[in-house]
Amino acid sequence: MFDLTGKTALVTGASGGIGGAVASALHAAGATVGLSGTRVEPLEALAKELGERAHVLPCNLSDAEAVTALPKQAVEAMGSLDILVNNAGITRDNIFMRMSEEEWASVLEVNLTSTMRLCKGAIRGMMKARWGRIVNITSVVGATGNPGQANYAASKAGVVGMSKSIAYEVASRGITVNCVAPGFIATAMTDKLNDDQKGAILGQIPAGRMGEAEEIAAAVLYLSSKEAAYVTGATLHVNGGMAML
Amino acid sequence: MSEVEDRVRKIVVEHLGVEEDKVVESASFIDDLGADSLDTVELVMAFEEEFGIEIPDDAAETIQTFGDAVKFIKGAL
To answer: What does the entry give for GO biological process (chain B) (predicted)?
Structure first.
């Protein structure tokens, strides 16, 4: 339905469940994809699976210099950078009264500050091209809060506020900046939960099931398309009705 | 008229769609030539590309007029 032929997309956290699904969906729509992440092996495996039009661009998002260099590397590998999907994120959960400065700072650094750096690097070329799509993956938790995740929720809410501000500034250049906020998605991380934990989670979800990574990817694909040109500064909540925002 | 001035003027005229004779030394990009703040960022990017130089953000903020741009670029070449 959405055609991204000739477009180039950089996806961070492509070694994870959601990032991999996003990269696959954009690739299936015709885009050339740059797969970024810290773990090279799963990136290589995904690139092999996708075949042509897939480039592996490893990057440690807590390394400021490496992050700044990443958009340039993406342009060198793919010729341009039309679509940026900031998907990578980390958690360092702890109840707030026990949360260390280090737990706070590391989550803000990777989830918020590296997203800022990547946006800055990518927008340069997008301004010149008068076309660009930035999709930041946030979380339902950024809107609702979650015990044990003050740092993570703050980082994701921060990304939403930043995205809206950037969206204002670059809208006249044909660049849109949006967020996709997943609820509970079945990934390697949620596989580790026991049945009681899963039951408690499912009780909060009107849809009665966890989401699939492909359902997040579909939202990202839409926001990356030319059809979504008039959607900017928005957050698309994909959470089975868990929080109707 | 120097070659640098001509090249800078050409970029300004093309980017902001203004008449060439409006682009005088004291012309402010924002106040006289109708640029918005994002246009000034794009102009700096275009200067960097045209002349193969790097204009750091703190220097870019001091480039307010056509004359400022020419002076900075001449100094950087």
So the answer is: Kdo2-lipid A biosynthetic process; lipid A biosynthetic process
